Amino acid sequence: MSGKWPNGLIDTSVNAVLGFAFVITSIILTVVIEINEISMWRKFIGFSALAGVFIGGAALLPVESDTDRRFEGLGDIRVFSEPQASEVSAFLIYPYGEGANPFAEGLMHYVEHLVAASVWDVGGEDAMRHSNAWTNQFSTGYWGKGQSQDLPDILQALVQSAAPFDMAPEFASSERKIVQREYDFRNFGQAMTVINREIEDKLYGNQAWSRSVIGTPQDIAQFSYEDAVVLHQRSHRLEDAVLLLFGDVSKGDVFDALEAISTPSAAAVSALDPVDWSIEVTPMRQHAGQSLKGDAGPDVIYRKIVQTSVCGQDFACDVRLGLLENILDSAMEGGIAGPLRFDAFLAQSFRFHLAHLGQGQVEISFSASLDEGVSRKELLSTFESILEDRLTSGFLVESFERVKKRGLLGANDKLFSAKQKFDAALSWAQSGMPIPGLLAENRVYDAITLEELNGLARELAAPGRVVVRNLY
Q1: pLDDT tens digit sequence for 16-52
Q2: Are 146 and 254 in a shared domain?
Q3: Does 334 lie in the same domain as 226?
Q4: Residues 35 and 125 in one domain
Q5: Residue 265 domain-assigned?
Q6: 332 shares its domain with 249
Q7: How far apart are alpha carbons 155 and 148 in whole angstroms?
């Protein structure tokens, strides 16, 4: 591919001329050296000087560097090239999800539906037809796949997600019915969905974390097209978006494609306000029993939020919690699996997870199914006792080093495949977070000390907001 000098690329013909000149001059110099029987040391000096001339001369020309190129219309562009990939995948992610929505709950998801209907001209009554888009608490995104030659068309469709809505209000109204069918599909007969929603209402209070991505039937019925237009303009701004690509394409290919397509004009509106994800961590405990109504589910659910001071910044806290979780959720010394499942046979199965909610606030989640003859009270009290002991006693050096070594990938960026880097970047972007990169993550992971991890564990044992459910 021939580059464009204004964008920091050198034309391949210049490389060819430099290479040819270097070869000819090397031959001439070699002949001169042999005729004059110049010593080997002087030969080395001569060739080094010649190489320096050409390398230095080439350095004065624009160097082929995709990182020098900029596309003013997008906030961030990351390309993960893999020549062996069978297709190109492109994701355009806006860092605004339901948590940033100031209107009726679920309206961001409704906006996603309207965008997909407008850009991809989808239709019909299938409640799950919008499979190339998503909305979560933190982001709204769209994706497309195809061959490398399809890249301009793929990118054109993605950037159109920022174009102002141009649809009849009647169509927008009918789309509410599709959202309602999706709600029914996801919730009908799903007792655990209702239970989890009630738990989160108690746990998070009236905060961004407790907002429903899809909304309630009452919310959906009242969705306003006018509100959707405003929310779309303020949330779907290309200058805030992240574009991620994986496949047999280079960053130069991507910039060439972006320069060849048309992008919507930015609306003269401000972005949505930053989301306050903090939760009032006033110690409380709410314990209740609920019916599964014949649905499958665990026997016990325990969730706790606690404030920490040593977890660190967002991605660094996530990395530390990941290591801590791997120790606790194990059968080795310092873990909870032995006394709960493999030694005392209290739980047939269980799930344990540590999640960073932001600003050093951490949620501990535990759910379990009883083993035969074990009561819910016995399982819960044993779990809480064992967890407190593990968090406050300090971990053995052997357990810490064994688990840490298992997750350490090394400090060389070349050890990570393009797919690994892409998947990690996509996960961070979908979480509405800046993309630190696997190498940065691994450096934080490598620097974790046993003393640091024990300090974080002790803080998790402090009083917090606790919600418990016994399910029948």
Answers
A1: 443 444 444 444 434 333 434 333 333 333 333 333 4
A2: yes
A3: no
A4: no
A5: no
A6: no
A7: 11
- Predicted confidence band of residue 55 (pLDDT cuts 50, 70, 90): very low
Task: Extract the tokens encoding 51.
Answer: 């190489």
Residue 326: φ, ψ to 5°: -65, -30
Torsion over CA of 259, 264, 269 and 271, rounded to 10 degrees? -60
Q: What is the mean pLDDT of residues 234-252?
A: 95
Name which of 174, 176, 172 is nearest 184 in CA terms.
176
DSSP strand E in 234-375: where?
242-247, 284-290, 300-307, 347-358, 361-370
What share of residues in the chain are helix, strand, coil (percent, to 5)? 50, 15, 35
Distance between CA 445 and CA 57 in Å, rounded? 42
pTM for the full predicted model: 0.80
Domain that holds residue 32: 5-64
**Helices and strands (H and E) in the chain: how many:** 16, 10
Any domain includes 266: no
Query: pLDDT, tens digit, for every residue of 404-413?
Result: 988 765 545 5
Chosen domain end from 64, 87, 112: 64
Q: Are 175 and 279 in contact (CB under 8 A)?
A: no
Q: Determine how β-strand 465-471 pairs with β-strand 284-290.
A: parallel
| CB contact set of 55 (below 8 Å; sequence gap of 6+) | none
Nearest to 46 by CA among 66, 67, 25: 25
Q: In what order do the strands lie in the sheet with 300-307?
A: 284-290, 465-471, 300-307, 361-370, 347-358
Whether residue 121 is found in the same domain as residue 255 = yes
Q: Considering its fold, how many domains does the chain have in total?
A: 3
